[in-house]
Amino acid sequence: MACVVYGGSRGIGKAIASAFLQDGFRVAIVARNVQHLEDTISELHEFTHTEDQLLRFSCDITKEQDVIKTSEHIHHTVGAVSILVNSAGINQDSLLIKSKSTNIEDLIQTNLVGPMITCRTFLRGMMQRKDGCIINIGSIVGQRGNAGQTAYSASKAGLVGFTKSLAKEVKDRGIRVNLIAPGFIDTDMTKGIIKRQELEKAIPLGRFGMASEVADAALFLAKSCYITGHVLNVDGGLNLNI
Ligand code: NAI
Predict the structure, then answer these.
(1) Domains within the chain, CATH numbers bracketed
(2) Angle in degrees, CA 27, 161, 17, rounded to 5
(3) 33 lines ligand 1 (CB under 6 A)
(4) What is the pLDDT of residues 153-203, one digit of tens each?
(5) pTM (global) more than 0.85
(6) Which residues is 232 bridged to in the sheet?
């Protein structure tokens, strides 16, 4: 079975690609930065059984034509895609009063419109085969909000509505759509976070999560044939504080 991971060159996406590879899937990782993609291919090489089990594609999910062209390339080289993971995302913290329209647009385009475009692009094949599983990566802040992250939270809250609506649209087509809402996970995105100790105290499990722990949840959703339209929190219990 083939799986495509957008944002698969780093962090959570890379951990998801690694988990699916180790479970025997063919995996296509997609991201913008070619060097990061090359580095990830070398890093994950030890988990591949054949030359073509792990492939990389460079693409910007905010550019629809780029997504369509890449999806055709993926289809020809990897085959029919059964699992689509949308982990590509950006974060730019700013109070709304100080934020620029271009930053707001970038966040919404990348975190919300991007996954909508990738889903629409791969849906046609999934609908024809009546087989598909889509996993969107949202965030706990899409449920509880966070000062300094109005646009980011809005993009992730939008992704919840999108996931549930799409799950209803494709329920009769053999396609499931779910969302993972991570809390604080150790990746490049959270590297520069300030007041880490204070944040850790607020997390019921007392620590940041590992990208591999989000990957465990993605693999679980891929195999859970009776779950759709679900928001799965992987946040050390942070959602208990809502
Ligand atoms: P990261 O910064 O380590 O990796 C982001 C990935 O997205 C990279 O592969 C990058 O190339 C790709 N990407 C970004 N913009 C893109 C674009 N326009 N086109 C194609 N690829 C693009 O981030 P991390 O931490 O792995 O985050 C992954 C997802 O999880 C994001 O959607 C993020 O919002 C979400 N998340 C992360 C949390 C954390 O604590 N790290 C917490 C909650 C949600």
Answers:
(1) 2-241 (3.40.50.720)
(2) 15
(3) yes
(4) 999 999 999 999 999 999 999 999 999 999 999 999 999 898 999 999 999
(5) yes
(6) 180
